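Bit of a strange request maybe. I'm writing a small parser for structure token strings and I need a real example to test against, not something I typed by hand. Could someone generate the tokens for this chain?
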Amino acid sequence: MNPLRTRCAVALGTLLASVAIGSLAPPSAASQPRELVVPSAAYPTVQSAVDAAHPRDRIALRPGVYREQVVIGKDLTITGAGAGKTTILAPEHLVTGSDGLNSIVSLGNAASVTISRLAVSGPGSGTCDAGALGAGIRVLGGAHLELSHAAVSHIKDTPMAPCFRSANSILIGDFPTGAGSATIQDSEITDYQGSGVVVLGADSRATLLRNVVTGQKTISTDGIEFVEATGRVEKNTVSDNACREPDPECGPDFFTEFQHAGILANTGVVVTKNRLVGNQLGIYGFGTMETSHNTLVDNTYFGLALQDGTFTAVRDTVRGGGGGVAVIASAVDTTARLDQVRITKVSGDRIRKFECCGFTATVTTRR
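Reply from user aminoacidic:
Good idea to test on real output. This should exercise your parser:
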């Protein structure tokens, strides 16, 4: 027998066996997601665990208050012991992020981050002139947030003030450029100084499902806002968002004054099965969009306000408040089709048209 051939055959057999064994062996421990526990000797803070984590690792937060800012730029899962037990609290001095805002939790670097069973809370200690709290949770740089069974509360400064682009509970994307995305569900968003959830920019999107979004009664707020972004808003309860004194630019004139809304949405946003209670406007729509099966109760000016576009409202119910449906034409001819929309117990007009600058508002109804 040829010795060289024998040695080659043995070597080839050994190689094939090692390949076969490797293909059947479980992945190495290093490739498996780890769980990092906070606080622990190795990870006394949330940020220390985030810094040490590998992509796809899980971070478990024990009950307690973590007074710190957290910046996340990798794929992670962060889970608390419950929104009433685990809180990430704004520190006394906030560090400004890359977007120029001071936020408590910031996501960037195209990271996909899952956060659940914890609270993110203010207040901040800054002012409009210096150190104002920018957001509870900030999503930018192509990052994606999955938030569930959580609370974002007290996102405001001390004392409260209507700072521009300040104190939004959850801020996604940027305008005119910048992107972020989120799915937010089964969470409570309360006591904010600016807006509950803001989604900015044509490349940003969000799905909001079964959340409670509640403003407060001492300063002007909005509940949920989409600005050129797309998404879906379904089965949320949004309340107590309106103009508050002193706010000299607010009022009922759609052409010269501002109004605040429970949900403000534009083309590409589906708004369905929500409950809007005690806002100045229940739903304020722009562009081309459809609302359906929403319940709008005791909203001060109108339950629905539809401006500058083409709208269909299907089986929405307006009950109580100042008026039913406002259709506004200020920049384009506007049409609104009201399909089995029920309007009861309003103190003002059931349907009212506002027209300006040579543009017309047209309303058709189907009972």
